[in-house]
Amino acid sequence: MIYETLIYGISIIVLAVIIDMIIGEVPNIIHPVIYMGKLIEKLKNYLPKTRISGLLTILTTTFTFTAISLIILLICAYVNQWLFVIFASLLLSTTFSINFLIESVRKIQDELSEDINKARKSMSYLVSRNTEELTESRITSAAIETLTENITDSIIAPLFYTTILSLFFGIIVGICGAIIYRVSNTMDAMLGYETDELIDIGRYPAKLDDVLNYIPARITGYYVVLAAVILRYDYNQSYNVMKKFALKTPSPNSGYSMAATAGALNIVLVKEGVYELGYGTDELTKEKISQAINITKVSSLLFILTIVLVYFILMFIVM
């Protein structure tokens, strides 16, 4: 029974990764994150802008999507095991985004070679800062910051919670854990800003996201350093910069992967008036984006291989 549970768990996790890498995002009409965003937006518009409203938004959105996911997964498991594996893999694949993340940043890199105004426009969809007058080096910095920060948000964290919860409670609970994480991250992206409108209603969603990312962010930082070792980048500087600069960002979590990458690539990542990460001496040219993409790919692959290894060790133990 335990062996079969482990087989289901690792099969669904690996299949979900393959789906994301080959197919990418599922169509918007069936993508859970689209509907998460719509529900959060409605609650934001209808509820008063208070901290209690933020708490109600967390409870309502989390319960709604966890309950729907749980019910559909249980129905699929009851009807047919293959239907369950396929649907579970598809659902899990919507909680992380390796392919889309990398392609979004690669698009900006390509646009820097064609038309900087296009790159500025594309960058504006990925960051909260004003991109209208960003230079090539600042666009490169913003692209690398976005890419490497999202190694945690878009890849490591949802797979981390899926794996931990799956090993203790089964893959269905693991997938629900990933859904809860994705709800939290979406709420933070929509409400977690210190503006007059959102500072109160977004307080608890932002704090929840900080808590859920605390462990995954630090894991990600070390995987970036390990990726730097494999890629023969400056892994020693990667580690030292991560240790020195990781907590220089407003978020207690986002600095780990960004600082580790800055050190590995011997660059300084800058968000004007907010932070400077690293003490590198290389110029921020668009070729650095390719290196950051390499770090993203390798660190993500290493983490996925770690998950597979853990499952295989446990399967060997219980045989």
Q: What would you note in describing this structure?
A:
It is a single chain. By secondary structure, the chain is mainly α. It is built from 12 helices and 2 strands. Helix 5 (98-114) packs antiparallel against helix 7 (136-169), helix 7 packs across helix 9 (203-231) and helix 9 runs parallel beside helix 11. The mean pLDDT is 94.
Domain count, please report it: 1
Radius of gyration: 20 Å
Number of helices, where a helix is a run of at least 4 consecutive DSSP H or I residues: 12
Describe the sheet with the most strands. Answer: 2 strands, antiparallel
Along the chain, the helix and strand elements come as HHHHHHHHHHHEEH
Structural class: mainly alpha
> N- to C-terminal separation?
10 Å
Which stretches are low in confidence, meaning pLDDT under 50 for 5 or more residues running? none
The fraction of residues assigned to DSSP E strands is under 5%
Query: How does the overall form come out from the CA principal axes?
Result: globular
Strand line-up of the largest beta sheet: 1-2
Overall average pLDDT: 94
Oligomer type: single chain
Count of strand segments: 2
Helix share of residues? over 70%
